[in-house]
Amino acid sequence: MKKLEYNGKDYFIPQLTANGGIILKPNQTTAKSHQEILQHCQSKQHPILNDLNTIYDLKKFDTPRIPITTDILTVEERKLIGTISLPRVLDLPIKMVNNEEYRIPKELIGLSGIIQKVIDFEYALNKDFANHYYCYLTVDRGLMRPGETLREAPCHVDGFQGSRWNPKCLLNHTYSMSDILPTKYYIQPFGFKQLDEAKHDFFWEMNRQVAIHNSLYCWQPVEGAITLMDAYTVHRGTESEIEQERTFIRLSYEERIFDRLGNAINPMFQYDWKFQPRDIESLNLVAFDTECHPSLRVFPHQLLDNEAKNSLVEAATNNTSTSATDSAQQLANGAY
């Protein structure tokens, strides 16, 4: 285990080994079995499928979207991921662009069967665009105490493209699962028309807009579900009511190189990325609405911006529409 420190944080990077790993590839026979799910979602004009392989666009947050359940882990599989020895890894590249191989270091071989499920669904969904994407694996495990979440509590999305990314690039799509406590998703429109990417904290604003509706549009999949979401799917961790351990797994498909210092390195590939110290706190982003409650902030140190003028109600009414809210209610009720 290698320890890194920057911006007041500690990062522990597992030292994975090059030998003894396995290579996975799509199983075309298994992939065909997913066509029924895909055809059903396509018939419903599911926004996650509609926006797949498109360029990131903030306006798409106006459309509520519910994750697609691609598979459900068995009780035995959930017990497996909760008990086998696993290193914690952050955004480990297991697939490179222009390469169909998924290379799994031996320390993570115990997850190979579950990773194969995602690979096969992704092939059925997106085989024509497979060469455009890296695939990054995150594994997190930790002890949760009552009232705590395993991962970041605030509402957020995976694959947000802020001011650093211009021009914008292809949209992220992500598969995630856990052994217990499924992630919470918010199936409502989010309006960001008046926000400045270089100034405002969009995750803080997501918290605020969820609070406006008192979490009315919160949705959770069944335990053990493997869910597919995109970078417009707002979600957060689930609090534990008791002391228990949780294991979380994520596979993210991205056009971008994830070169943040602290990310895991896969010795089964040869690549020379220049890793950079980077975190959202260093951007000094502020709340869009100066009157929102401080509890909605993303990080404890953040302060409200006294120059902002917009009120809570004005922002909510200006950025959402009746039709979008009605659609959100249908989605939260299981329309898909």
Descriptive terms for the model:
336 residues, alpha+beta, six-stranded antiparallel beta sheet, 13 strands, globular, Phytanoyl-CoA dioxygenase
Written overview of the protein:
This protein has 336 residues and is α+β, with helices and mostly antiparallel strands. It has one domain. The protein has helices at 28-32, 35-43, 47-50, 75-83, 112-126, 202-212, 312-319, 322-332, and strands at 2-6, 9-13, 22-24, 68-72, 89-95, 102-104, 134-144, 173-178, 184-186, 218-219, 225-230, 235-236, 244-254. A hairpin with a 2-residue loop joins strand 1 and strand 2. The longest helix has 15 residues, at 112-126. 35% of the residues are buried.
Describe the secondary structure blueprint for this structure.
Layout (H helix, E strand, L loop, with lengths): L1 E5 L2 E5 L8 E3 L3 H5 L2 H9 L3 H4 L17 E5 L2 H9 L5 E7 L6 E3 L7 H15 L7 E11 L28 E6 L5 E3 L15 H11 L5 E2 L5 E6 L4 E2 L7 E11 L57 H8 L2 H11 L4
Antiparallel strand pairs: 1-2, 3-6, 4-11, 5-7, 7-13, 8-11, 8-13, 9-10, 9-12
What's the gist of this structure?
The chain has 336 residues and is an alpha+beta fold. The protein has helices at residues 28-32, 35-43, 47-50, 75-83, 112-126, 202-212, 312-319, 322-332, and strands spanning 2-6, 9-13, 22-24, 68-72, 89-95, 102-104, 134-144, 173-178, 184-186, 218-219, 225-230, 235-236, 244-254.
Number of E-type strands: 13
The run of helices and strands is: EEEHHHEHEEHEEEHEEEEHH
In terms of quaternary structure, what is this? single chain
Portion of residues in helices?
10-25%
Mean pLDDT: 87
| Biggest sheet statistics | 6 strands, antiparallel
> How many domains?
1
Low-confidence stretches: 306-323
DSSP helical segment count: 8
Instruction: State the end-to-end CA separation.
Output: 43 Å
Biased composition (Low complexity): 317-328
Organism: Didymodactylos carnosus
Protein name: Phytanoyl-CoA dioxygenase
Region (Disordered): 317-336
